[in-house]
Amino acid sequence: MDRRIFLKGSAAAGAAACLGAWPDRDAFAQARAETLRVVAEGRPNSLDPHGTGVSPASLGTFSNVYDRLIQFDRREVSAGLYRYDYARFTGELAQAWEESDEGRSLVFHLRPDATFHDGAPVTAEDVRWSLARGVSLPASKNQLATGSLKDAAQFEVVDAHTLRIRFDRKDRLTLPNLALTFASVINSALVKSHATEADPWGAEWLRSNEAGSGAYRVETWNPSQQVVYSRFDGWKGGALPYLKRAIVQVVPAASSRVATLRKGDADIALQLPPRDIDAIAGDKAVKVVSLPVTNSFRFVAFNTRQKPFDDVRVRQAIAYALPYKDLLEGAVFGHGTPLYGAKSRVPAEASFPQAFPYDTDLDKARALLAEAGLGSGFETTFSYNVADATIADPIALLVQEALGKLGVKVTIEKVAEAQWGALLTQRKVPFYVEASSAWFNDPDYFFRIFFQGDWRWNFGNFQDEELDELVNAARWETDHARYDEAIRKAIGIVFDKVPIVLLWLPSFEAALQPRLDGFTYYIHGQVDFRTLRSA
Amino acid sequence: MPRSLPLFVLKRILAVLPVLAGAVLFTFVIMRVLPGDPAAMLASGPGSGPEEVAALRRQLGLDRPLAEQLVLYVGDIARGDLGRSFTTGEPVVRDLLQRLPASLELTFSALLLAVATALPLGIAAALRPGSVIDHACRLVATVGTSLPAFVVGLGLIYAFYFALGWAPEPIGRLDGWMDPPAAVTGFVLVDSALAGDGPAFLSGLRHLVLPSITMALFALAPLARITRGAMLDLLSSDFIRTARSLGLSRWTILVHYALRNALIAIVTALGMVFSTMLGANVLVEKVFAWPGVSSYAIDALMSSDYAPVQGFVLVVAGIFAAANLVIDIVYGLVDPRAGRSG
């Protein structure tokens, strides 16, 4: 065949195909309004709510694809913007639930008509199997155990649509745990059909396949590029959502996410740095959402069992030397709620995180260092995770400069992300900056994770008997006044001994098209398609 | 006298095997020598204590002796299994099969663009040294090498997408609303042409333009410089002078005698540029959300995800070897003297 004739022929064929296949304009506009396009940096990596090494973005997937017995209710914070309410619950698969035997038994009544995406009815046996799976697999069992959900034998099928859970004692953390994605209900027959002897819970299969009853099903699962969701019209867990489709795309460059949003090609942009948020704040074509993440905090930590930070006066001196305002401005452009400068050393309320009673006061810092016998200063390293560099790098420089005024010579150490976890686990860093969060806001829950124990999350490597006693007493305290008293005392200890110095509460920030209504911020900071509407 | 082509190819393929084995061993050891613990990385949610980390290490097989891990790994490779990435949650083979065509498509189109610009530019510069066009060639080369790819990329996005609206959104290979054509080769342009899907072909082409230009600019500099240099040398050589004195036409001298001889240097440069582009365009991939192999490997490296990094190195080593083979064959075509020895 002559090359020239071939080329001409294929060009003509291409042109004809273009003309023939253009979609109808009106139909396209309609489809566009009912389709949501999210651009984010984070990408999901699993469809298994109990999976190991699950990325934060996967939690958004679980919320939309699976149902739980119950979910957190939400309240409106400003016109059209909601946030989850940690203290109130609403049914998802359960239409009602009641507690008996002094809270030692919880009975859930399932919606009788709910089905999984493959049409199989959702039964109490599915719920039992899913919870048993959750308490058996390593990635979910520790979390569920914080709500006394520990043993498969606790879950009892009463009849096809009734499930009972038994406890040794009433636990106020049970319901919050049941509202997390770890308590998602999975199509047990479907997963079992893919289970093997080596993998009885079907984890291998469920990682890249879904088995949910949630409002959306996964249409295309291409997690490192884009995931397409389509509405499950048979959903019974709530009112049928407005959006028929949702496309979540991974766009690593923040400037590209901003550009597509401002251009109207994307509807929601997540994980925007403060600078980009400030840059688009004046743009009428987009709406910026900003909420404090109350279960999260940015902090500077010491290894309290290593010299010189084993001396409480040294820690307090540094807490007085940190340039808090400059840190907040320099690192996140003021996008955070200060957790410093409380007026009183007595905690204002029994809640955590709350502002620490420290503010920049170099005279006090000098006096404390002198008292500790380090009036002429000392040398130390200040470390941070390279993956956190945008925020941690300015912090490190400001800390270095501020402590230099006290004669403390700080060497900055940047640690590769891959190495960071191992170093924290092995307590190899004396002084560092990090951010963290816990699932729940109960102060005793917070304290158990961050101020106790032998694990990485006890960032200050802190040990204090009195604090342990108070926190343990608060765990099962049912009397509010006594609970608050114990917690205030525990907070007082942390104020005084500063194993970590709190800096600020980070903000959850996203930008969206102004026509979108009903955006709900959840614990995981991902997008819940179910509540969104296009006005 | 050139030997038969199939024998030559076979010999070269056999010669590549030790290189690949070396690449496997090298990456395997390097990944484990580098500081970082995938188990500690994976167990990074509150609630994971030392026991969970130990259990994960067992599950990942990291508690076994290094030699045993290597034997297991080589056995897996022999079965075509490159392991599973825990950052993407997918088998590495699947990830690479999906991402390699994306990288190749972008690299090829950028290379095509670069060659189409660099050859005329270099030749013109060589014909008139010191002229405006020669300075232009030098300017383009300097700009191409000195401007970071992401600056060029962001600038192009701002101008052609955001301000002018000519280019499509800088996300991936196709319009987000569009269903991708059935994957046959993984190349969007080829697959959509095979499926007769006009809109997909057009969308794929439109999405290719800006990232290709960004990458081409990077490749333009070495190619244009080498073309210019080779042509300058040749145009002042004896046989060209002879050809001129014999009264051959300018065109014949330029294309048949000078350019053909310059090609050997250009093809060598092309091979090097191709290999570099394929593995080193992380920034272009990030800025355009292009689902290629380099950003995949970098993300994996950042989180001590061994399997994808090992898989990536193996595949890129293979491609590098293949590219060299192709270049050697092309040598034989453009210059019979190069033969097929070795």
Described by the principal axes of the CA atoms, the overall outline of chain A is globular
The average pLDDT of chain A is 91
Shape descriptor of chain B? globular
Strand content of chain B: under 5%
What would you report as the Rg of chain A, rounded to the nearest angstrom?
26 Å
- Helicity level of chain B, as a percent range? over 70%
Spans where pLDDT lies below 50 across 5 or more residues of chain A: 1-22
Number of DSSP strand runs of chain B: 0
The termini of chain A sit apart by: 57 Å
Total count of helical runs of at least 4 residues of chain A = 18
Kindly state the percentage of residues in helix of chain A.
25-40%
Report the average pLDDT across residues of chain B: 83
User: Which pair of chains forms the biggest interface, and how many residues does each contribute?
Assistant: A-B, 67 and 59 residues
SSE ordering of chain B: HHHHHHHHHHHHHH
Instruction: Tell me the quaternary state.
Output: heterodimer
Structural class of the helix and strand makeup of chain B? mainly alpha
**Helix/sheet category of chain A:** alpha+beta
Family (chain A): Belongs to the bacterial solute-binding protein 5 family.
Domain Solute-binding protein family (chain A): 90-454
Main location (chain A): periplasm
Protein name (chain A): Peptide/nickel transport system substrate-binding protein
